[in-house]
Design goal:
It is built from 1 helix and 7 strands; from the N terminus they run βββββββα. By secondary structure, it is of the alpha+beta class.
């Protein structure tokens, strides 16, 4: 599943954030991306902005977060894809495991 796509030659990328996780993504947040076909490892990034409108990508509602590469990296170009991980702060293992269940309960109990 593509979670990140390079879109401009100015070393910016779009990260697709799921609708359940978008409230935890803020401008200025840091993270890293792994680009397919590139063996050099993770590239540090910083979130520039989060698009407030959702779009459907491969059947899922996602929000687009625009990120910039912290340091310029050679060998990247528009259309490349990969996986992104954004730093959300510290959490316990139990909280990470229970968060999806709590979100689902909150969603179902709303009706």
């Amino acid at each position: 599943q593509t979670l990140m796509e390079l879109v401009t030659p100015e070393q910016r990328a779009v990260v697709y954030v799921g609708e359940r996780d978008v409230q935890r993504v803020k401008a200025g947040q840091t993270g890293r991306i792994l680009v397919r076909g590139r063996a050099e490892g993770a590239i540090p990034v910083r979130v520039v902005r989060v698009n407030p409108a959702a779009s459907v990508v491969r059947g899922k509602n996602v929000f687009e977060a625009e990120v910039e590469l912290v340091k310029p990296t050679a060998g990247l170009g528009p259309g490349m894809s990969g996986v992104a991980k954004l730093n959300d702060g510290f959490t316990t293992t139990l909280a990470a495991l229970l968060r999806p269940m709590a979100d689902e309960l909150r969603l179902r109990m709303w009706w």
